[in-house]
Design brief:
single chain, mainly beta, 5-stranded antiparallel β-sheet, 17 strands
Length: 195
C-alpha cells in the first residue's frame, strides 16, 4: 500500500495569490482552498449566524381581562340605625363596604323564593317608624360615607370605610338611635335583579 510523501523540499502554488510557497507551510481553508499560512482567512462569523427564535407573539395560558359583575354588599344583622326622633337620616353599619359617596344604591332584604321557584328580594324589616318597603324603594337612595352623629358627619378612616348614611323618604324615626332592618339585608347597584 502506498503512502504520501512528506514534501519537505516540495513547492506548492497558493490558490489565493498564485505564488509559490514551501509545501509544508501550506494550509487548507474552510472553503477548501490550499493557501500559505500568511494568506489564511478564517471563516466569517456572519456566514454561520447563531440561530435566534422569533419574537414572542402571544403568552401561554392567558386569561383575558373581564368586567366584574355588579354585586351587593352585605349589611350586618340589624345594621340600620335611626339618627334621632323626627329625623329621616339612617346610619348603616357595613364593615369594609367599599361604596362610593354620592352614588345611588338600592337596599334589599334577604332573598326569598317566590311561587315558580324564582328568587326575589324581600323588604328589610320595619323599625322605629321606618317601613322596610320605604327603605327598599326601587329608585334607591344616594348615600354619604361616614357616620352621622351630633348633627355632623364623622369622616374618620374607620367611619368612612365601615359606615354610610342616607335620608329616607316620607318616614321619620319615632324614638331615634334604634337599630333594625332584620337579617340578610344588602345594598348594591339599582340595576341588580334577583336570580
Amino acid at each position: 500500500m502506498s503512502k504520501y510523501a512528506v514534501g519537505k523540499h516540495s513547492k506548492a502554488i497558493s490558490d489565493r495569490s498564485g505564488l509559490e510557497f514551501p509545501y509544508r507551510e501550506m494550509v487548507r481553508e474552510w472553503n477548501g482552498s490550499f493557501v500559505h499560512y500568511t494568506e489564511f482567512e478564517p471563516k466569517q462569523p456572519q456566514l454561520e449566524p447563531k440561530p435566534t427564535g422569533g419574537d414572542g407573539v402571544a403568552l401561554l395560558n392567558v386569561r383575558p381581562d373581564r368586567t366584574e359583575p355588579a354585586t351587593t354588599v352585605r349589611i350586618v344583622d340589624n345594621g340600620f340605625e335611626t339618627y334621632e326622633a323626627g329625623s329621616r337620616i339612617i346610619n348603616v353599619f357595613s364593615p369594609g363596604h367599599g361604596l362610593t359617596s354620592g352614588t345611588t344604591y338600592r337596599f334589599r332584604g334577604p332573598p326569598t323564593t317566590s311561587a315558580g321557584s324564582s328568587f326575589t328580594y324581600s323588604n328589610p324589616e320595619s323599625f322605629d317608624g321606618i317601613t322596610g318597603a320605604n327603605i327598599a324603594k326601587s329608585a334607591g337612595y344616594t348615600i354619604t360615607t361616614g357616620l352621622y352623629k351630633n348633627d355632623a358627619a364623622i369622616t374618620t378612616d374607620y367611619a368612612t370605610s365601615n359606615y354610610f348614611y342616607f335620608t329616607v323618604d316620607t318616614d321619620t324615626a319615632t324614638t331615634g338611635e334604634i337599630k333594625g332592618g332584620g337579617y340578610g339585608c344588602s345594598v348594591g347597584p339599582v340595576t341588580i335583579e334577583a336570580w
